[in-house]
Amino acid sequence: MILSVANHKGGVGKTTTALTLGHALALLDKRVLLIDLDPQMNLSKTLERSNWDKLVNIHYALRDGEIPLSSLIQNTRIPNLDIVPSSEFLRAADVEFFHKYDFALRLRQQLTDAIREDYDFILIDCPPALNVLTVNALVASDYVIIPITPGMYSLFGIEMLTQEIAEARKTLNTSVRVLGVLITNFEQYTEKRHTRKQYT
What we know:
Elements: E1 2-5, H1 14-27, E2 32-36, H2 42-46, H3 58-63, E3 74-75, E4 81-84, H4 93-96, H5 106-110, H6 113-118, E5 121-125, H7 132-140, E6 143-148, H8 152-171, E7 177-183
Parallel strand pairs: 1-5, 1-6, 2-4, 2-5, 6-7
Antiparallel strand pairs: 3-4
């Protein structure tokens, strides 16, 4: 199963969701592959697998397909959890892949049958943008998890993302579905009720 963790709004917990879900599944003895598509590389940095190699990185694997994605998979310190690290070179993706739907199949083509058979779950950490990288993730995925923070401003962005998902379903991936909306950064406040003592 391939799941994208996506929301074009930043700071909603996409990377934390991908990491904690991946870790939890790994603890259940599931083979999990994380794919970091965010050029900020926070997921890769957290797992100490940042890819600074200018010649071998996910950017070039998506750009021309000459580097197989399988060659970029790295083990992490967590058993059963592997990662394809991100690269700062992904920052140029929107410029290089200007017509995003012309390049939307790159990630799906790189996720070969051999990779899919090796893992029970593949989790894709998307960048905070509705760009060519996010579209690649949607086209490659079975399901999408949408993290949001409590508040009306987070709700505004869901409609744009669901429209993008609908467009991907209509053109390139008829099976992708929204698995759910995940509320993150939630803090529960309790109000102390003060009762007035009555004296008789």
